[in-house]
Q: What sequence folds into this?
């Protein structure tokens, strides 16, 4: 009976292990599918012109998404100008200054904000910026992405700062170093890689946003010269091309999607490299 | 007494004799959320001598130490009552910033905590640099001087730019001592500085303490009775937040006046 019991236990263990393994594979599968699909559909349309030329009118062959690629970079730069300082300093406040009740509210608000659907963000910024300025604009697009970055960066910054042992703070204060200097030179510096990781992940997240840009950046078939003009962005261009009835545009949309995911993957890989560096230094 | 015989060999950084009072503690009480963890402590801590604070866990000895450089204020629930004078200056006086007090009263912690993003010499000079000292010559001088005083110079002089965390545990603790010395404090507080170290490293720290008291006033919290007996001139026994007995170390360990002190130092409780 003991042996039978033992065999049954072993069987249960194997079952659980298989189930967990299957689920783990399911995590990888969608990414493989996405990549496979994008590469087969989009790779053939990626060429030099894709990165250097403006979109061509319907019917004309060729053209590229140069303006959308540049537009995405401009938008995430603008977004970073808003999201990084506010997010990082907000995270510093949450982690380093104890205001129990206020901190609870900020944290709660940030978490709720993180869950706000992106299209809602687009509508709010449309009402607050686009309507008063009487037009879609690069500025509005940057602002909406920046606002979305703030709570993301704030929470990750707070978390990595909390990982800095309190002994470092005490040691610095005991040397007669002022608190703000201690925070910048000791705490933030110690957690810098984690903070940068959080910023990059937030960037990767907003770089692919489409919905909020529909109401704000709007898209543009040409180069944008002013912050008050609408601007093209990769996700917008993909969206517009994908819902069009033209095969040529569909191919371009696939190529755009491939470029976008390569961009996001590149950011994620640099995050990996950064964190690995941190661990190797610790073991050194 | 040892402290007096050695006072003449001090480096002359200050003109105080060993019989001076470095810290005059008067009716010091500390409360956390209105619970008194330190009750009405009054004692004079001698300059250029080592004063050991002993007592069982939770007796308030760490709190006492932290009240001397106002580190207890990091806990927003802490409140204090009474007075501590550092060479005559009330460190809790109106308009006295904790930052100023901490430049005069340095601290070394139980767990060595060199800053992991900094090299050995950056760690030593961090207190100076973040207080506005830019002169490279002064910084280099102070680095060597502090590392020599912490008996670490010979071991690290060829790799000052190596990461501080590449040092061994005992070396890291001596680096922390050098870092505290570099800002030239008057008093050095040590909170169980050797309790995480092996016997050899502990021995080095104890030798160092005896060396350092030629110049500095040292207050050390320790759980190690032998350490207190070996390296201190005066010993204070704390129990349940009260100062039970305070006197020359030899007397505390051989003929204490209080029964509780005798029970503790002979290992009958605690």
A:
């Amino acid at each position: 009976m003991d042996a039978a019991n033992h065999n049954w236990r072993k069987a249960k263990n194997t079952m659980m292990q298989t189930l967990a393994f299957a689920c783990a594979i399911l995590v990888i599968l969608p990414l493989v599918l996405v990549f496979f699909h994008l590469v087969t559909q989009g790779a053939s349309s990626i060429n030099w012109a894709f990165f250097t030329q403006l979109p061509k009118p319907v019917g004309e062959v060729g053209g590229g998404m140069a303006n959308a690629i540049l537009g995405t970079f401009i938008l995430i730069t603008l977004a970073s100008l808003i999201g990084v300082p506010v997010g990082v300093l907000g995270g510093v406040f949450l982690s380093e200054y104890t205001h129990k009740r206020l901190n609870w509210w900020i944290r709660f608000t940030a978490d709720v904000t993180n869950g706000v659907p992106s299209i809602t963000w687009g509508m709010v910024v449309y009402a607050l910026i686009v309507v008063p300025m009487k037009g879609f604009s690069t500025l509005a697009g940057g602002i909406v992405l920046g606002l979305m970055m703030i709570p993301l960066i704030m929470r990750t910054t707070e978390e990595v700062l909390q990982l800095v042992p309190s002994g470092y703070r005490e040691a610095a204060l005991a040397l007669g170093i002022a608190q703000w200097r201690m925070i910048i030179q000791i705490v933030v510096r110690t957690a810098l890689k984690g903070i940068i990781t959080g910023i990059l992940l937030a960037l990767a997240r907003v770089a692919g946003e489409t919905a909020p840009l529909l109401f704000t950046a709007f898209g543009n078939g040409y180069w944008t010269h002013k912050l008050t003009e609408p601007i093209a962005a990769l996700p917008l261009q993909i969206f517009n091309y994908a819902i069009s009835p033209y095969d040529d545009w569909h191919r371009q949309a696939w190529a755009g999607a491939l470029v976008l995911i390569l961009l996001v993957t590149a950011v994620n890989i640099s995050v990996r490299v950064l964190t690995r560096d941190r661990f190797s230094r610790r073991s050194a | 007494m040892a402290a007096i015989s050695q006072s003449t060999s001090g480096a002359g950084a200050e003109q105080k004799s060993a019989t001076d009072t470095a810290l005059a503690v008067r009716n010091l009480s500390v409360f956390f959320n209105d619970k008194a963890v330190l009750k009405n402590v009054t004692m004079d801590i001698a300059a250029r001598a080592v004063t050991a604070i002993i007592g069982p866990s939770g007796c308030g000895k760490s709190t006492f130490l932290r009240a001397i450089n106002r580190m207890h204020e990091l806990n927003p629930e802490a409140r204090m009552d009474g007075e501590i004078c550092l060479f005559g200056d009330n460190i809790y006086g109106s308009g006295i910033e904790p930052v100023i007090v901490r430049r005069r009263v340095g601290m070394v912690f139980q767990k060595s905590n060199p800053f992991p993003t900094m090299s050995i010499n950056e760690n030593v000079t961090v207190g100076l640099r973040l207080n506005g000292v830019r002169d490279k010559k002064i910084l280099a001088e102070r680095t060597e001087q502090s590392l020599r005083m912490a008996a670490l110079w010979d071991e690290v002089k060829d790799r000052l730019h190596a990461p501080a965390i590449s040092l061994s545990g005992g070396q890291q603790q001596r680096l922390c001592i050098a870092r505290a010395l570099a800002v030239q404090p008057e008093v050095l507080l040590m909170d169980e500085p050797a309790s995480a170290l092996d016997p050899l490293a502990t021995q080095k720290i104890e030798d160092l303490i005896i060396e350092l008291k030629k110049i500095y006033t040292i207050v050390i919290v320790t759980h190690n009775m032998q350490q207190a007996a070996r390296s201190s001139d005066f010993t204070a026994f704390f129990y349940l937040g009260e100062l039970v007995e305070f006197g020359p170390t030899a007397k505390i360990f051989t003929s204490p006046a209080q029964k509780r002190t005798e029970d503790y130092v002979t290992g009958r409780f605690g």
In short: The domain at 49-283 of chain A is CATH 1.10.3720.10 (MetI-like fold). Chain A has two domains: 2-45, 49-283.
